[in-house]
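YM 10:42: ABC transporter ATP-binding protein sequence, as discussed on the call
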Amino acid sequence: MLNSSTVISVQNVTKKFKDITAVNSLSLEIRKGEFVALLGPNGAGKTTLIEMLEGIQSPDSGKISILGASWKDNESFLRGKIGLALQETRFMDKATVWETLELFGSFYKAPEQRLNEILELTRLTEKKKTFVNSLSGGQRQRLALGVSIMNRPEILFLDEPTTGLDPGARRDIWKILEDLRIEGTTMILTTHYMEEAEVLCERIIVMDKGTILDQGTLSELLGKMGGGEIVRFTLEGGAGKEPEVFLPKLGRSKFLWNPSNKEGRVFVDKITEYLPAMLDSFSKAGLALKELECHQKTLDDLFLSMTGRGLGE
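YM 10:58: structure's back
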């Protein structure tokens, strides 16, 4: 039996396209008010999963429940309860911001007060009489986000909403999303910006090849794969030795090696303790370093440690 706070339930869902299994017997629950990031490379199955949650696609097998209802018999009810914010939304160029809000507000019989609330939330009050084609990319995306929440959705799907925006415009969107989270809106975000998931989301779900590899808070995920810091190095082309046997065994260190480009990554607890011992071991073994880089572990490092490839690959 589902918890009363569960707003999205996915049970053993599979979706295939000819010979490709896009989503493979996947199960997932999302609770009321959660802000969840769905991460994975192209082809991981994220888009197919989201489209099934949005009622655009139907699963081949398994069950999807949104707010306790299925899409099959409750489409009209569910359309009024969700919002969609996409990478790009087309508006009429010669309509003003206010006229655009009036148009979309008419679909939900939204009063003028709601239109003014949207203007304030999206920081577009001063652009009320501006034509859409005169807005910057960030302003248009804020308008699109405002339109997506016109009906006060209980669940908001965000499909890479800040793609192509400059850092300042991206943070403007983040502030709006943080305000929505305070209001209790449940949000599911797909993004290729690791910082975006780290800053906004309380739970991160990592997908690949149609399945969930792992999920949890950022600290929980980063704590699973060795230490919280990374030593990345490449060896000179002439070095033919496998470096793992020469690496110090300290703390929760974990090693990944790519023989094609002679690049290694060591996940360690403390770089300041590990690095001197590693350099000493390499010197004694006659291994020559070509590059050396140290940094805090990121979500991309986490995905690399899970699959052997980065999220952008």
